[in-house]
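Escalation from tier 1.

The customer reports that the assembly of three entities below gives different structure tokens on two consecutive runs. Tier 1 could not reproduce it. I'm attaching the input and our single run for tier 2 to review.
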Amino acid sequence: MNFLEISRLAFVTAFYLYCLSFIFYVIAVTGKTWKNRDPKQHERKWGRISFATSSLGLLAHLIYCGTRWAYSGHIPVSNMYEFMTFLSMMIMIAFTVVFLIYRKILLGMFALPVAILVMAYAAVFPQEVQPLIPSLRSIWLYIHVTLAATGESFFAVGFAAGLMYLLRTVDFGSHDKSARRQKRWVEFTLFSIIIVVGFIVSVYSFRAAGYEAVFTQNTTNIDSQVEEDSTIGKEVYNLPPIVAPHNSTMESVQPFLGMDHALFEAPSWMKGVNAGRKFNTVLWSILSGIVIYALLRLILRRPLGQLLAPTVRGIDPDDLDEISYRAIAIGFPIFTLGALVFAMIWAQQAWGRFWGWDPKEVWALITWLYYSAYLHLRLSRGFQGKKASWLAVLGFLVVMFTLVGVNLIIAGLHSYAGTD
Amino acid sequence: MGKARRPVQIIILVFIVILGGYAISSAVFGGGTGKPEPGDKPPAVKLLGLDGKVHTLEEYKGQAVVLNFWATWCTYCVNEMPALQAQWEKWRDQGVVVLGINTGEDEMTVRNFTEQLGIDFPILHDFENDAVRNYGVVPMPTTFFVNKKGRIASIREGELDLETLDDQIKQLVNP
Amino acid sequence: MIKNTKCECGHQNRVGTVLCEACGKPLEDNGDSTELLEMRYDGAARRSQRANPNWIDKVWNFFSSVKVAVYLIIFTLIGAIFGTIFEQESNFVSFDPSTFYKEKYGTIGDLYYKLGLSHTYESWWFVTLLVMIGASLVICSLDRVLPLYKALSKQKIKKHMQFLTRQKVVYQGPVSENGAAWTQRAIAPLKKKGYRVHTDGDALLAEKQRFSRWGPYVIHIGLIVFLLAVLFRGLPGLHLDKHYWFPEGEITKIPDTNLYLKNEKFTVEYYTEEEMSKEFRETGKVVPKLFETKAVLYKCTANCDDPSKEPVLTEVKRHAIRVNDPLNYQGFKAYQFDFDLTPKLRSVKPVLVDVKTGKQYGKFQLDMTDPQLKYELGPYTLELKNKFMDFSLNEKGQPVSISNNPNAPAFLFLVKGPDLPQEGVQYIYFPKVIDKERFQQDAINEKLGGLQNKLALDVLGMEDVDFIESSSYLNIRVDRAMPFVWLGLGIVMIGLVMGFYWHHRRIWLRIDDGVLTLGAHTSKNWFGLRREVAAFLKTMDVDVDEKDLENGGNRS
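Tier 1 run:
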């Protein structure tokens, strides 16, 4: 067994341990109200079990990271798969740190799903160990990426605590206008998370089925010599085509539920690399998200927010507000150092300019501006509590767009080799 | 308290206005291409002539200058050479200089070429393409018409025929 | 209307003061409120708050408001998003933006260009936003840091009762012993926790890590330094940013400097199969491992400005330029940017061959640029009459060169020697074999004087052909303001660490008639403060649960 095989095994182990410990956290939180039990003792016992499980998972995760590092000779953050896996590991570390400070078992119930989702998302990307291209061969790859991911993972914990605060404070029984609006947005937030689940589920199920559809696309590239050059490229879809690439012809499509051709073609302005396929994936994620959400609603017969709200009933909202704020306050300097300062130093060394308004750079700046606005707003009392929690929730969306959206939608210098 | 505050406030606000004004104006106007435009002074050149001497634009102060960027491998440049030569002969007594700037070819090539076509207006070598860069020349030929006040009157890209040249030079001499 | 700002303790406060500067009594309400106190800037008035503002004050007040600052941040954030929708003009070099966006993205792209969003970050409104943020940084900080400094450096130990009971962490309870004695006893455990303790009879003030309060202002100073450095970066002479080609083996002048750079050797290295993982090998991709230009930098020491003379060069620096490892000579930097592996002919070394006897005369070097004009080879003399770098025939059938690149070089010689006419015979020579056939060297020479039957120029082997193997494209940069950029960022980081990883904590207590009233405040991490206060009270034999210290008060 070589290092790579160990690291694969460790990855899977970590993933299942996280899932298991999530279940344990749920039992620890919800089981308090079960019959014939002393809530305090139950919480202590199951809290210990679940924290031990999640720590074991983190250990496996660290083993994954170490062995893959040893195998490839460079820190495993060089492509989307490695980076997202690393991010989920950092989220677990951030969670562990915050947990050790505040000892709130409930936090596990919300932080673990975030880590699990990020990890599952990582596994969608190609997993082979890639050699580093010259521009990535720098000590700053290690420092910049790890610190940026650390900062972002604290933002993720802030997000989890913020969401819990909202579930705790939004009055799900009330029917006045403001409560209704808040309920809707909480539901929407949960729905967005389910879209990510939908994405992962659809990619995995069609991958397991070996689905493939091929299009040939006529693209006109204008290269640096200002010569127009038409290339005929092949686009391979691993999801049934709802939307075909712009200006393409169908080559082969495996029928899926009787669907043997694309329903429509991508608009002409979607001309980026693999734009058609990406758009198709987005559509699939939303569709399967809607299906999963509808199923859940059918089974549970009430909004998800209402379902989750009782689990957080026993906790003091001020604590949640503070955890959220604290996590962001811990993460902010780390993020500044990793994602901006060290990024600038590296950019200066590699490209000769510390700042080039590259989309990824701009989005890191946007994230930074966003959280600095958050920190300024918290100065005034009106922005503590509910409003701050909304900001923390929205902030993580900005972070995720910076990490994922920019790579998928806007290509720049940072475009890691990624698919879908 | 508060008496010393007003001057401090004013000084800081003035600084902000100056620095901010500088920042905004350099963003709005400073983004120019750096290419000379009509009305600008032509960028200085210091080049070796075919006559073996170093020439600068200073030598032609007070004269109208027709600055032509060319190369022997550029068909349009070659085509317009006789017209340039004709205009040089026509206007040289009225304070008009035609200056050919050859872009990056060696002396033999240039000499053979000029002798073959009977060209005798001054030719300068731009071996390192310095002038090409400073003048922002992209297509060849490009011709800069500099008036007697030492300002660029017009810039023409592409081949010029006898009449256009004549018109342009007339405008230089009698604005 | 001028409000009465005199506190009941006799202290005359400035307009805008929230909490009496001396005793901490809340000034703005009538004393029946139980709301938590607003502790920002310790309740001191900001500098700009005054009774009758004139227009300067109004401008000042505008920029000193945190609300305005937050709006500025949000506008900048939204503005920055616009710039990421499509690529920016500054991120590509060679397209004409007026048509590029329309062709690539259609009408939306055209609109994007016309709105000026294709250069968002250089647009007047974006720069104005940045300038306003800069102004806000300066004025906000000045407006707050001095009053805060004053408020913190002259704190009264005994605070008003309301000041204590309306803190977020409050404890009230009886103590059995004498007030002053209890207070004295409290000093040691507080000191042990790192507090600086001040007492005044039966009142006490314990404080620690006050410096963390300066964190935000240090961050702001750092940001101002950073912004100024970025602003002055653009000043002429401080900044150079150009890209040039450096053919291998040649010394190339770097325009606008007195430096010359020689590209001694350019290397591209690819990962070998052994260095790749098994799966990656199967994808069949080739990944570059290294781009390296072995460069020598020369400085011109004499004849630099005289094109008629050869410049005198002195070597000043030698460096293997790689991605992530630029050449650096006193702030002048050269970065690996791109390369071109198309070989270019530099020179050939042909021999003159007597076609009939096979006898060879001499071997001479024929350079593509600036070749020697006369060659003596045995009994023969070759005078170079003309050369064509990219040989072609124009519509009149005359030989011309269609570019300056040695794609199809041709040399026209005048050959003199035994058995040749006095005035010599013209002879054309194509060094590349393929051109010899393509342009029919023999047929041309037949017309020129038939020398091809008598003499021939021939390259004997590949060792006599010299190529410029490749060219390296380097990014030449000078950026004199960089140290200040790093300084600014360094200050920002110091401020961040100060402000976010340390927390200013204060505990006030007073004992009135056997009743202890304790109030505590921190800028961040109430959880930790409560725990600390509870632990402190425990050492003082007051048993209280952490959670009970939380002041109910109001919750907004």
